[in-house]
Specification:
By secondary structure, the protein is α/β, with parallel strands linked by helices. It has one domain: Spore Coat Polysaccharide Biosynthesis Protein SpsA, Chain A, CATH 3.90.550. The chain contains 11 helices and 11 strands. Strands 5-4-1-6-10-7-11 form a 7-stranded mixed sheet, sandwiched between helices. The chain has a two-stranded antiparallel ribbon with strand order 2-3. A hairpin with a 4-residue loop joins strand 2 and strand 3. Helix 5 crosses helix 9.
Amino acid sequence: MINKLVILAGGVSSRMKKSLEQEQLLNDPSLADAKNKPKSMIRIGKEGRPFLDYLIMNAKKTGINDITIVISEKDNSIKEYYDSIINENWLKEIKISYAYQKIPEGRQKPLGTADALLEALLSREDWKGEKFLMTNSDNLYSQNAMNILIHSEHKNALIDYNREGLKFEKSRVSSFAVTLKDDENYLVDILEKPSEEQVKNATSSDGVIGVSMNIFMFSYDLILPYLKITPLSQRNEKELPTSIKMMINENPKSLYCYPLKEHVPDLTSKDDIKIVQEYLENEFNEN
């Protein structure tokens, strides 16, 4: 069983902060956090925990106990927080380490998700020969989704979410990356911001549109070389889907897609805070 997890938390939360530009009243602690901290550190839920706590709780319940969090070199709030509570009972069995994602000179943002994962793996050479999970820090993936991946016998895998199960407005979900699979459910392509024609081509015979919400299982030794050579995209970032495409092009049938129909709470903008708050209060079980 896989017990390792990389959490990408080094982004600058630009979409969240942009949605708060016109916000005048920040009496709500969650809104104040959203303006001044990484999205994953927004206090939310019954006890005002940082959002990242809930993801780590779900990971622990599946048996994951070795976590590397990728953080920004310009923001140490995540490390400071977990260092301060490391002796709390719910964290005692978990090892947390950190990898720093730098912002190169002349840039306002880090180099992207492929660069973030590369920094994580370079900091954990002791993981060579192993498999690990990778997630975003601003999505709350279920224990069910994690359990599927940690027990996978494939070299690499992702959770292939049924688009109909995601409780987002249609305009938002239509921009999510869709997955193109072969007849054995191995990934052939990830289509970012797909056109209507691309979505149609990716729709299965039973009408299911699969989307990636950035929860993967990777083989350290297989993904690492492609992270190292990932080029800059048109958005001037080194993007993980590009690394994955290079990997599967040279290694066909090396990333399996597990279908799953369920919602994934997401913190992207200010408007998500109340929705996620209600989800945590009504549906999340901390025990």
